[in-house]
Specification:
Elements: H1 19-50, H2 55-91, H3 95-122, H4 124-132, H5 137-150, H6 154-169, H7 174-198
Helix pairs in contact: 1-7, 2-3, 2-4, 2-5, 2-6, 3-6, 4-5
Length: 202
C-alpha cells in the first residue's frame, strides 16, 4: 500500500497541526459532547418522574427502554455514518452527493422504523415479557404501552438523528446543540405537566 499509494506515506509535516484544525476539532468535539450530555440529562429527568409511578411501572419502563435502545441501533449507526459521509463529500466539494446520501439514509431509517412499528404492535408484549423476565401483567403492559406509543415516533427520531449528524459533518456545531436543548425542554415539560395529569401515558 505504501508503495502504490504515495498519499499514505507519512512525513514530518503531516504531524503539524494548524490553529484552524485544532480549533475546529475542539469546537466539534465540544459540541458533540454537550449534545450527548443534554440528551442524557433529559433521560435522567424523565426517569425521575417514572420512579414515582410504582415499582411495576419502573420495571416495565426499564425493560421497554432496553428494547427501544436495541431497536434504535440501526438508525443511530446510519446517522453516525452520515456524519463521516457528509464531511468527506464536503471536503471533495460533492454537495449533490451529500443530498443524495441524506435522502438515502432517511429512507433506510424509515424502512427500519416501519419494521419496528409492526413488531411493536404485533409481538411487542411477547418481547417485553421475555426481556423483563416476569409474568407480572402490569410490567408487561407498561412495556408494551411504551413500545406502542413511542414506535410511531421513530420516523421523527430518524430525521432528527440523521440531520443532526449531517450538520455535525458539515461543521455546523451550534444547530445540533440547539436542537438537543429543545429536546431537553420537551422532556422537562413532559415531567412537569403531562406526567402528573396523564400518569405513565404522559
Amino acid at each position: 500500500m505504501l508503495k502504490k499509494y504515495p498519499i499514505l506515506r507519512l512525513r514530518a509535516e503531516d504531524f503539524q497541526f494548524g490553529d484552524y484544525n485544532l480549533g475546529n476539532l475542539f469546537a466539534t468535539g465540544l459540541s458533540m459532547g454537550f449534545m450527548l450530555c443534554i440528551v442524557n440529562i433529559g433521560s435522567v429527568i424523565l426517569q425521575s418522574s417514572v420512579n414515582g409511578l410504582g415499582t411495576n411501572v419502573v420495571a416495565g419502563h426499564t425493560g421497554s427502554r432496553k428494547i427501544f435502545e436495541m431497536m434504535a441501533v440501526p438508525s443511530y449507526a446510519i446517522s453516525m455514518t452520515i456524519a463521516t459521509y457528509t464531511s468527506q463529500n464536503l471536503g471533495a466539494k460533492k454537495i449533490r452527493r451529500i443530498r443524495e446520501g441524506l435522502i438515502s439514509a432517511i429512507g433506510v431509517c424509515f424502512i427500519w422504523s416501519t419494521i419496528v412499528i409492526i413488531i411493536s404492535y404485533t409481538i411487542g408484549p411477547n418481547i417485553a415479557a421475555a426481556l423483563t423476565g416476569t409474568g407480572n401483567q402490569e410490567v408487561v403492559d407498561t412495556a408494551a404501552l411504551y413500545m406502542r406509543i413511542n414506535s410511531p415516533f421513530y420516523y421523527a427520531l430518524c430525521v432528527l438523528v440523521v440531520l443532526r449528524n449531517c450538520m455535525q459533518g458539515l461543521g455546523r456545531t451550534i444547530i445540533p446543540l440547539v436542537s438537543s436543548t429543545v429536546e431537553l425542554v420537551g422532556k422537562v415539560v413532559a415531567v412537569l405537566w403531562l406526567t402528573p395529569v396523564f400518569g405513565y401515558v404522559g
